[in-house]
Design brief:
Number of strands: 7
CATH class of the largest domain: Alpha Beta
CATH topology of the largest domain: Rossmann fold
Number of domains: 2
Radius of gyration: 21 Å
Shape: globular
Number of helices: 14
Order of helices and strands: HHEHEHEHEHHHHHHHEHEHE
Bound molecules: S-adenosylmethionine
CATH superfamily of the largest domain: Vaccinia Virus protein VP39
Strand order of the largest sheet: 3-2-1-4-5-7-6
Structural class: alpha/beta
CATH architecture of the largest domain: 3-Layer(aba) Sandwich
Distance between the termini: 47 Å
């Protein structure tokens, strides 16, 4: 492997914590909804005899990379180019109803970030695309060049939590009146030129703008909202779901979704007992998110903002109001 190839390789984040948290057992079947480079999947197949992995990614290039990484495991790895929202189809295609564990390692991979052609990075000049699945939806440039100023500002506030959203939206609208913004570098320069942006420390001034566009282009939060209950539905009793998120919007969804699955009761608090009849699906294993060690952050800076949460199917509290200790 050349130095460049090594730099492009995706190092799996929170690997030991995910493997321990999922309580992987020999012979088990696991669904990896975000294959990427196949890092987590490979370790499951390598370390636990007889395990099988159903692996999904909506990015055809990621799938190809993972297929190479997992080639030595033959039919123990079944890969599909698919959105993880459709995981039930992949599970059924393997002749199964349920799996022993599920992992979702959200966001983009190092390969995606490092590719000039994909348009995910503000530090690399390339087309302003950002689609994980190049055959689905519209590229980021379409949003940047066609949405009106208010909608752009709302997007940057909502998905980028960007304080200067209105000024950035105004700068985008001004710039595109002269020439359409079609490259990552062009957009990054427009954002950086907004007064006050050059005073931002620790992160690149365009970080939040790029995050907001990427979330919108790929409907990342919508996919996550759907996939969590869908995943838990397809776990065996005692099976676990592990989700690694990389920013607060995602982590909030994971935390709330797991809590709702644990304590779904919607009855008013004053009622002495549950009347809605909603049944707990299991329990939250991680009261607080698991974060990477200082050592991991040192060797893999991409892990810096990772948060891992785990949910276990079944063995919950049965019907009715859940244990408030988790809230
Ligand atoms: C952080 S990477 C995963 C890295 C992988 N765990 C590894 O160790 O190599 C995330 C991957 O998930 C994919 N992805 C994100 N959202 C997806 C979705 N809704 N459906 C399928 N794949 C998705 C991305 O294309 C990307 O390849």
């Amino acid at each position: 492997m050349t130095g460049n190839e090594a730099a492009r390789r995706h190092v799996p984040v929170l690997l030991e914590e995910v493997l321990d948290g999922l309580r992987i057992r020999q012979g088990g079947v696991y669904l990896d909804g975000t294959l990427g480079g196949g890092g987590h999947a490979r370790e499951i197949l390598e370390r636990y005899a007889g395990t099988r992995v159903i692996g999904l990614d909506r990015d055809p290039e990621a799938l190809e990379e993972a297929a190479g990484t997992l080639a030595g495991y033959g039919d123990r790895a079944l890969l599909h180019r698919m959105d993880f929202r459709r995981m039930a189809e992949a599970i059924r295609a393997s002749g199964l109803q349920r799996v022993d564990g599920i992992i979702l390692d959200l966001g983009v991979s190092s390969m995606q970030l490092e590719s000039d052609r994909r348009g995910f990075s503000f530090t690399r000049e390339g087309p302003l695309d950002m689609r994980m699945d190049p055959d689905q939806g519209c590229p980021a440039s379409e949003i940047v060049n066609s949405w009106d100023r208010e909608d752009l500002a709302r997007l940057l506030t909502r998905y980028g939590e960007e304080k200067r959203a209105r000024s950035i939206a105004a700068a985008i609208v001004r710039e595109r009146a002269t020439a359409p913004i079609t490259t990552t570098g062009h957009l990054a320069r427009v954002v950086t030129s907004v007064p006050g942006m050059n005073r931002i420390r620790n992160i690149h001034p365009a970080t939040r703008t790029f995050q907001a566009l990427r979330i919108e282009v790929n409907d990342e939060l919508g996919a996550l909202e759907e996939a969590i209950p869908e995943g838990v539905k397809h776990l065996v009793d005692g099976g676990r779901m592990a989700v690694i998120s990389f920013h607060s919007l995602e982590d909030r969804i994971v935390k709330r979704s797991f809590r709702r699955l644990e304590s779904p009761c919607t009855c008013p608090r004053e009622l002495p007992e549950c009347r809605c009849g909603k049944v707990s699906e299991g329990k939250v294993i991680t009261r607080k998110p698991v974060v990477p060690s200082a050592e991991e952050v040192g060797t893999n800076p991409r892990s810096r903002s990772a948060r891992l949460r785990i949910f276990e199917k079944g063995g919950g509290k049965g019907k009715g109001k859940g244990d408030k200790a988790w809230q």
